[in-house]
Amino acid sequence: MTPHDLAARSRAAIWHPCTQMARLDAVPPLPIARGEGPWLFDTEGRRYFDANSSWWVNLFGHADAGLAEAIATQARTLPHVMLAGCTHEPAVELAERLSARTGGALGHAFYGSDGASATEIALKMSAHHWRNLGQPEKCEFIALAGGYHGETLGALSVTDVAIFRDAYAPLLRATHLAPALHESGALAAIEAKLVELQGRCAAVIVEPLIQGASGMRMHGPEVLRELRALCTRQGAHLIADEIAVGCGRTGSFFAWEQVRALGAEWPDFILLSKGITGGTLPLSLVLTTDAVFEAFLSDDVARGFLHSHSYTGNAIACAAANEVLRRMETLLPTLSGQAAALREAFAPLLHDDARIENGRQTGMVLAFDVKPGVAGERFAERFHLAARQHELLIRPIGRTVYLMPPYVIDASIARWLVEVVARTLNDVCSV
Ligand SMILES: *Cc1c(COP(=O)(O)O)cnc(C)c1O
Fold first, then answer.
1. Which residue from 346, 367, 356, 369 is spatially nearest to 417, judged by alpha carbons?
2. Which residues of 146-169 are buried (b: 16+ CB within 10 A; e: fewer)?
3. At which residues is there a site annotated Participates in the substrate recognition with KAPA and in a stacking interaction with the adenine ring of SAM (predicted)?
């Protein structure tokens, strides 16, 4: 089987996500045979550095031996059992470990299968909590401009990325949109919305520190501290979607730890997925507080939280996540050094290259925008294709080029990365 054959079979048999299938001849999918560390190898043995961690899920590199072992051991012992009426050690251990990371503040874990389902669960749980407290009118949500929370209908309702949303807008629930947190005046606008809703807002949902899918738009922890206080004052939940930014991506295990360091309380919900299994298996969690949990305790089944997926709390995925958490204990302290290596290597490019603007970084996410005049048509596609020729697998978002690599960065890898990014820019930019 040649790589070309695999791409052709793929085109015929697979409807690829986030892909205009009519462009598949121009952008044939890379036939990947195996991975090792940050590298992916195609069926002809060519290698590619996975600069976007395979859609932000990979933490330690590919085919990690420790994760493989944890998965194999669990698969031989207990791959899966339903989590209604049964429980198992990997799921309990994972919930306990995450609770401990919040000092018990978010001590109740509900399991989902992917990021979008975590969003669905949090929205339902928030509104149902208010209903159980006798406030059924509290069932509306405030989301932020440029926010992304997944693409199932409920999650898409609180997502504001036009390309994902527009075609499906008629299917969605109305949501109140407020300015993104990096905009000045965002807090005042959110407060005005909360006041206008007169107690009908169940929750405000945000991506802490980095709005990922709309182009790595960053804000500091201070505005999140103010938002936490504002939601408390106005009696609305705060949902922190850490699906992308959790698991060390911003330098701390939870992005919210940086808000805590400023004296803020925890959010009412934290959503985790993506990195939680280190890029091996789908799994998500919704972490919440005693106050939310207790509002569901009753003799009445209908007052309990009703949401179920067949693979909820899958034991193999939980075992992988437990291994991720064990490994993160030694890895977390190295992340500031890894982030510094990226920062130092990219500083000359970000400061001096006249073709780019808005260089920015939060922890292990580094991004810049190519200026509109230089980017040209189909910039993301052309950049992606050109980068392949330099052993780099990267998918810009519009004109935004970003690196969100596995946590394997040292000074020499960082220098190599900036060199290939610069060469790719030379290939695709018109000046
Ligand atoms: C990826 C992502 C989701 C959705 O997760 P899926 O597993 O792709 O459904 C939700 N929120 C954020 C912030 C994300 O980055």
1. 346
2. bbbbbbeebbbbbbbbeebeeeee
3. 18
Claim: this prediction has a pTM higher than 0.85: yes
pLDDT for 144-178, tens place per residue?
Answer: 999 999 999 999 999 999 999 999 999 999 999 99
Whether 406 is in the pocket of ligand 1, judged by its Cβ within 6 Å, is no
Contact assessment for residue 252 and residue 334, using Cβ atoms and an 8 Å cutoff: no
Distance CA 77, CA 86 (A): 16
Closest listed residue to residue 275, CA positions, set 122, 49, 55: 55
Helix (H, G, I), strand (E, B) or coil at 89: helix
DSSP 8-class letter at 379: H
d(CA 80, CA 90): 10
Query: Whose CA is closest to 158, among 102, 120, 186, 115?
Result: 120
| CB of 243 shorter than 6 A to ligand 1 | yes
The values of phi and psi at residue 288, to 5°, are: -145, 180
pLDDT over threshold 70, residue 38: yes
- Of 114, 207, 209, 243, the residue with max ligand 1 atoms within 8 A of its CB, to mutate for a pocket test, comes to 243
